[in-house]
Amino acid sequence: MKYRFQFHRYRLPFRAVVRTAHGLWAEREGLIVRLTDESGRTGLGEAAMIPWFGTETVDAGEAAARDLGEWLDEERLARLPAALPCFRNAIAAAQAEIKAKTDLESEARPSGTVHNASYLGVAALLPAGRAVLAAIEPKAEAGFRIFKWKIGVGDVADELSLLDDVCAALPEGAKLRLDANGALDRKRAERWLERCAERPVEFLEQPSFAAPSQGAAQRQKTDDLLRGLAESFPTPIALDESLVSEGDAERWIGAGWPGIYVVKPALFGDVAGIMAKLKHAKADVVFSSALETAVGARAALQWAFAWPGDRALGFGVWPLFANARNDGPYLAPFLRREDMERIDTEAVWNALS
User: Fold this and answer.
1) 150 an active-site residue?
2) For 315, which DSSP code?
3) pLDDT (tens digit per residue) in 270-326
4) Which of 117, 140, 294, 300 gives 20 to 30 Å between its CA and that of 157?
5) pTM (2 d.p.)
6) Omega before 319 within 30 of 0, i.e. cis
7) Three-state secondary structure of the chain
8) What is the CATH class of 119-342?
9) pLDDT per residue as tens digits for the range 6-59
10) Where does the chain hold its CATH 3.30.390.10 domain(s)?
């Protein structure tokens, strides 16, 4: 099989600046790739890099795209280096879309993922700091019952004092996810987990994190800290930044991680391989957005709908971009399978063309 290969690099401003422990994030950069097979079928994929997580940079992805040229075969695509996980992800997603179209045309049963759920819950993303208090009521009135609050952004004492106010503002039966983005040291993480024990906190996401640039010794120290926290407190710990590559998944599965795996499919080079290993391990998985465009969101949500678990999706991020045509589905407490299938990925490609 031969493909015509095209790509666009994008830089898209967010509708509002995203504030996390990593700093302020004002715009999204990445690549949209397009493959066209010999019969004219097309497929789109997105390389939504997050370099501070440990992915390749956008510049590295663009260099690889330019090096590929215009016409490719599957053998060439299969040789893409492992150091380009997001770019490999984009190519695989485009190939999968073409394969799905081919199966539909031949009336064959679609290969690849099989959709299990007809709808999935969605967690509402709350702003960091005191702005969280004003954001809860409108989202609760819209029907949300799972909420995600970014912590580790301000002073720990101030944020801890806010926790009871946040919990009091939640609707009855609601759950709160706390996301530290790796900002907590041992002492602060323990303070949070002690406070969470008797409150409606579903899990604490990535309390600590060591970037690959910090070296193997620091990463091992952080891994040991995360395991110790997971074993010492009743509130579950979720891995996010610590779960970016195939090697990360294998390491944590092999270590018998007792907590939750936050999976951002857009960041994995071999999504199918990782999902098969997580399924074999009976892993507790939450699917989450990498703040990608509609192209990457559709591919990621296909994996979420194929998964047998039922935890609410971490895709409560829309409206995300200043130009709404780049967004995924309309934000609601539940996402239906047909909402995912109606995402107009061609609109993103056309806007960049």
Assistant:
1) yes
2) E
3) 999 999 999 999 999 999 999 999 999 999 999 999 999 889 999 999 999 999 999
4) 140
5) 0.93
6) yes
7) CEEEEEEEEEEEEEEEEEEECCEEEEEEEEEEEEEEECCCCEEEEEECCCHHHCCCCHHHHHHHHHHHCCEEEHHHHHCCCCCCHHHHHHHHHHHHHHHHHHHHHCCCCCCCCCCCCCEEEEEEEECCCCHHHHHHHHHHHCCCCEEEEECCCCCHHHHHHHHHHHHHHCCCCCEEEEECCCECCHHHHHHHHHHHCCCCEEEEECCECCCHHHCHHHHHHHHHHHHHHHHHCCCCEEECCCCCCHHHHHHHHHCCCCCEEEECHHHCCCHHHHHHHHHHCCCEEEEECCCCCHHHHHHHHHHHHHCCCCCCEEEECCCCECCHHHCCCCCCCEEEHHHHHCCCHHHHHHHHC
8) alpha beta
9) 999 999 999 999 888 778 899 999 999 999 999 999 999 999 999 988 899 999
10) 2-105
pLDDT 10s digits, 232-262? 999 999 999 999 888 999 999 999 999 999 9
Catalytic, out of 175, 264, 279, 282: 264
Residue in 7, 85, 68, 312 with CA at minimum distance from that of residue 77: 68
Q: Which numeric CATH code is attached to 2-105? A: 3.30.390.10
At 124, list the tokens. 């509402």
The one catalytic residue among 150, 175, 221, 279: 150
Q: Please state, in angstroms and rounded to a whole number, the distance separating the CA atoms of residues 281 and 253.
A: 7
Residues of the chain with CATH 3.20.20.120: 119-342
